[in-house]
Amino acid sequence: MSAFVHPDEIRSRFSAALSAMYRAEVPQYGDLLTLVADINAQTLKTDTANADRLAASGELARLSQERHGAIRVGTADELATIARTFAVMGMEPVSYYNLAPAGVPVHSTAFRPVDPAALARNPFRVFTSLLRLELIEDEALREEAAATLARRDIFTPGARELIDTAERTGGLDEAQTDKFVAELLETFRWHAQATVSAETYERLVAAHRLIADVVSFKGPHINHLTPRTLDIDAAQAAMPARGITPKETIEGPPARECPILLRQTSFKALQEPITFPSDAGAVAGAHTARFGEIEQRGCALTPTGRALYDEALVNKDFSALPDDWTAMRREGLGWFRYRATPQGLAARAETDDLEALIDLGHVIAEPITYEDFLPVSAAGIFQSNLGTEARASAYAVDPAKADFEKALGRPVQDEMALYQAAQDASIAATLTALGLAQP
Ligand code: OOG
Ligand code: NI
């Protein structure tokens, strides 16, 4: 029996291979990587407190590898098979995002590792959207789109075989892993040849640009791959000098001393040459789908903190969210990871009260990084890259979560439950280390 490659390792290899492929496909992505690496190096040099904190929480090691990508699939079967594929790499669907209220006819989840140790090794995430064909009003067009999607298989036979193998035997060995990564790249690759006529493409674009993006090609090309910066304001400011034109505003919370959730900015989607099939030979055209994005991640918020954030976003007033870790922790607004200090381990504390232990210097609480996405930001990113017309009319509000989970073939995980579990486990381990709880 040959040894299985650990799912974390398969994920790391796939993430690296995808990054190399995308860099070759979209040279501007390489420019973004260089920019982010420069800004991060600079930030770590000047903000040593932050550097120490990142090192202590194990995030420094993952930083240069950290990416999220996005794909949009067309059918329930594609989504269910993607879920099985990501499971081979230790990634599970977390959270349900309904983009319909923002005028984007998809609903989504994010596949990512959920275990803190796996996140520390490589937190590779893929925001995955399922097209909601039922939101196309034109019945003939809806049927044509469905028929087009039914004719394609976004997975190679080799990929399908290895997904089966991994499920049947419990994993993949070295040779199987190499083949799996190579075969799976084909699903994420760009195809410059549309599978529909120019005329059908135009009708799909008229229904919604994103519908055309999903339906018109052989596969769900990765549409961006996002590195993580430690200072998005500095990165945004440095973009023009490097020939990159960012969108005007940074999505998400404002700049803070204590970063929360997720801040993102992007450059506009590229106009890329494509060809359409026709009886008279290939016809030239252009498609906009792929763009560049960078992000800064901060502390994950509790439901109370998140409610305050959502309110603040609407009112454009963030004063209710204290810009101070201690206040955020004491008010239960953010999730934190606790650990005993060397001083705490050497001493014998008289109390098991965490705040008292922090005051004594026996315990440290570090913010837990937000590993998920913000639907409002996501809608903003979608919108800014659909090109011209901002869509005023939103689709009817319909959570449709049950439909999504049926297509997915499993329920999505609750992000809040995952953060709660990470915080609780760190508290239990801290108290045990200090001799204040039964192991
Ligand atoms: C995905 C947009 C969502 C993010 O960072 O919020 C996203 C898409 O355009 O397909 O990636
Ligand atoms: Ni993104």
Please count the beta strands (DSSP E, at least 2 residues each).
11
Q: Span between N and C termini?
A: 36 Å
The low-confidence runs, each spanning 5 or more residues with pLDDT under 50, are: 388-392
- Rg calc: 23 Å
Along the chain, the helix and strand elements come as HHHHEHEEHEHHHHHEHEEEEHHEHHEHHH
Strand order of the largest sheet: 2-3-4-1-5
What binds here, in terms of ligands, is:
2-oxoadipic acid, nickel (II) ion
**What's the name of the CATH homologous superfamily?**
Uncharacterised protein PF07063, DUF1338
Kindly summarize this structure in a few lines.
The chain is an alpha+beta fold. It has 19 helices and eleven strands.
Question: What features would you describe in this structure?
Answer:
With 439 residues, the protein is an alpha+beta fold. The protein has one domain (7-295, 371-408): Roll (2,3-Dihydroxybiphenyl 1,2-Dioxygenase, domain 1), CATH 3.10.180. It has helices at residues 7-25, 27-46, 48-56, 59-63, 76-88, 116-121, 139-150, 157-169, 174-188, 198-207, 209-215, 232-238, 303-315, 325-330, 342-346, 354-360, 375-384, 401-408, 415-433, and strands at residues 67-73, 92-98, 106-112, 125-131, 225-227, 262-267, 271-276, 283-288, 292-297, 336-340, 363-367. Strands 2-3-4-1-5 form a 5-stranded mixed β-sheet. The chain has a two-stranded antiparallel ribbon with strand order 6-9. A two-stranded antiparallel ribbon has the order 7-8. A hairpin with a 6-residue loop joins strand 7 and strand 8. The longest helix is centred in the first third of the chain and has 20 residues, at 27-46. It is globular. The protein starts with 6 loop residues before the first helix and ends in a 6-residue tail after the last helix. The structure holds 2-oxoadipic acid (OOG) and nickel (II) ion (NI).
